[in-house]
Amino acid sequence: MGTVLVLGCVLLLAEYVRAPRSLLLLAAALVASAAIMDRYAAIALVPVGLVAVLMSGSRPRRALLGVGWTAVALLPVAAWSAHDFLQSSGFSRSAGWHPPSAAMLTSAIETMFDYLSPVPWLRGAILATLVAAALASITLRGRRTRWGSDRSSPLIGSAIGAYVAVLVATAFLFDVSLSVDYRTLSPIYALSVVLVAVQLGRWSAGWRPRLQLGVGVPMLALGAISASWCLQTIPTLSAGFGYTSPSWDRSPTLAALNRLPAGPLVVTNAPDFVWFRDRRGTIAEPRLVIAKSGLRNAGYGAEMDQIETVVSRQGGGWLVLWNGDARWYLPSTGQLQAALHLVPYQTTSDGEIFEILPPTPSS
């Protein structure tokens, strides 16, 4: 979803550059705000919008449009950040210089190449075809060849550069554990594909039909073969994607949860998984830290008190913990035992179940 939002925002901005209209800019800002709330790295869209305003040519209103764009795009995340700030003692996350390892850079490059195709020879063939198309554009300088870049190309290029800059700054200054994976790099790859397509479309517009077929047909054929290989690998890839994997589907802890009475409260560290597999309503384990900001959750104690209140009213409850879904912002089992009256109920190969008893008068 995040990649779709990033692409939608950039395409709206590209259309705004072609035909400046305030409603287009507003729509792009709203999409940008949703993208930023989905993935923090989408903050890179803010300078891209300012570039679009500068390219639009409406000089008298540039300052006003730039301020309006920035305000709308950042309003939701600013409100969320303000809420987190008020719920905590302040911003606890600080910047520090910690360059990523060479392995991280290598992994990022390999991931970008893997996007082309899961088959090595197909990756090479696609790259060779793209290079041949670029060389054809360079060597054929006749009157029928359109040189230069499309008007939207600088905007798309600025989006790629801004996105890379945000990831680099995050890795070097804020998050030493940043994971550069397919999900993180997917917006960069998608924008790169759009940029290549736009430029090839412009450069090939003046080619003779035979040359267009000579370049276009192999590229379409390779793309179709690559897509076919990708479709065949989807089951294998999905087997390792968390809740859709067979190991989660055959979870002994889920089977044990299904045997529990349906009435009492169930607290778990994987509420989405329980709903996804069982359509059973649960509540999430209270967080020690607010995940988006890294700040201490000032309401942790109050949330634990609310759980105890419900347990007292119902006469009991359940705490279901999966070993494979441990998250850094959640309390440990020991911290949960210190906050709630827990009695071990069942231990499985992939988790634990505790019975939550009502608090005693002395507690």
Descriptive overview:
The chain folds into two domains: 2-238, no CATH class; 246-356, no CATH class. It has 14 helices and seven strands. A hairpin with a 2-residue loop joins strand 6 (342-348) and strand 7. The chain is an alpha/beta fold and 363 residues long. It has helices at residues 2-18, 22-38, 45-55, 62-86, 102-116, 120-139, 153-174, 182-203, 209-238, 246-249, 252-258, 271-278, 300-314, 333-339; strands at residues 265-268, 283-284, 289-290, 295-296, 317-322, 342-348, 351-356.
Brief rundown of the structure:
By secondary structure, this protein is of the alpha/beta class. It is built from 14 helices and 7 strands.
* Main sheet properties: 5 strands, mixed
Strand order of the largest sheet: 2-1-5-7-6
Mean pLDDT, all residues: 79
Residue share in β-strands = 5-15%
**Gyration radius, in Å:** 26 Å
The computed structural class is alpha/beta
How many β strands by DSSP?
7
Distance between the termini: 46 Å
Q: What's the domain count?
A: 2
Number of continuous helical runs: 14
Low-pLDDT ranges: 142-146
Shape: globular
